[in-house]
């Protein structure tokens, strides 16, 4: 997820994390999606065809969407007013069981992240440690 979001810079990258409980335990899959926003430097939107295909594939694999992720370009990792509006357009979460991760990308490098979840009528946000997402050794 982090590598994809860094590579998307100077545009916002986006995608989902899918979870499966099938078989020998829980498994996770990260799926990047094309950013179809007309203003990709300041917003993201899933390409409709790609989103439909992810949903069909997830259904066939018995997966659920656990998380929606996207980056903010040269801006803080906060769940913005626009993010909230898209996730809950009329004050009701479209995906109440799904969390949202925002990663701040400055100059092509992830510097911070946050996770927001829907709890009783609103989103609650907590910071995340980027070390939790990186598998490479620091240079």
UniProtKB/TrEMBL annotation:
Keywords: Hydrolase, Metal-binding, Metalloprotease, Protease, Zinc
Annotated GO biological process: proteolysis
UniProt key word Metal-binding: yes
InterPro entries: JAB_dom_prok, VirAsm_ModProt
Signal peptide as annotated in the record: none
Pfam families associated with the record: Prok-JAB
Database matches in SUPFAM superfamilies: JAB1/MPN domain
Name of this chain's protein: JAB domain-containing protein
Molecular-function GO terms, alphabetical: metalloexopeptidase activity; zinc ion binding
Domain JAB residue range list: 1-105
